[in-house]
User: What shape does this take?
Amino acid sequence: MLVTLKELLGDAQKGGYAVGAFNVNNMEIVQAIMEAAEEQRSPVILQASQGGLKYAGVDFIAAMARLAGEKASVPVAVHLDHGTDFQQIMLCVRNGFTSVMIDGSKYPLDENIEVTKKVVEVAHAVGMSVEGELGKIGGVEDDVKVDHRDAAMTDPAEAARFAEETGVDALAIAIGTAHGVYKGEPKLDFERLKAIREVVDTPLVLHGASGVSDAAIRQAVELGICKINIDTDIRQAFARGVHSVVNNNPEEYDPRKILGPARDEMKNIVATKMQLFGCAGKA
Ligand code: G3H
Ligand code: ZN
Assistant: This one.
């Protein structure tokens, strides 16, 4: 069934677990995530970045993800990831996404509040949820690129003001993770997460979670993270599956035989994440 982000994360916050938000760009990725969600009896968030929407078309992604949600026996939210363009966000509203992210993190606080509030006003009017972001997460997530030198952790007092003034349903914070492949072991600032959680009731979101250790993920969930974003781990699983076929059988030309094993690889990694985040068995 299709649900809003607010419903999913409200339950997660009460239940002390996090819901996985997985990036989708094509049919096999959507199917892999849904197979894992059904098998694990897990609520799930299918999300697409602006880059993903440019690649596949917002109407195609919306149709696939909504169909997956309607057919599912577990709750599914269809979410825009790192929306930065107001028109693109409105296109997602029109195409039936159940929630959107407005990423105003590149702006100074007042401006971030202003652009986020504008999206909240429209989205809430039509029953959709909104995720905002405060602090700058380093690395590259499709259209959003932040040099590591410009990455900035979220300030707890600013987070309290941001949550209060914007009315967002979820808040992405920067506590030391980054988008893409890590060069070394990421160090999460758990004291900062604790301090933010003390003054912010809004469900908190961890981006850049691929490559973060299981122990760090568990601690983040214990300290109040309710939504965890995974993209790179899925991309790598996809590539592993395709490479294994292409390397072992370079003559293969049937797309189903090339993409099928990739779908299985992605399903396995998604299932593992659902168990780790604690959302497995919660649907
Ligand atoms: O918004 C999407 C994510 O934050 C994914 O980050 O590619 O490092 O898993 P990741
Ligand atoms: Zn992200």
The radius of gyration is 18 Å. The first helix runs from residue 5 to 15. The mean pLDDT is 96. The pocket of glyceraldehyde-3-phosphate (ligand 1) is lined by residues 23, 81-82, 141, 179-180, 207-210, 229-233 (CB under 6 Å).
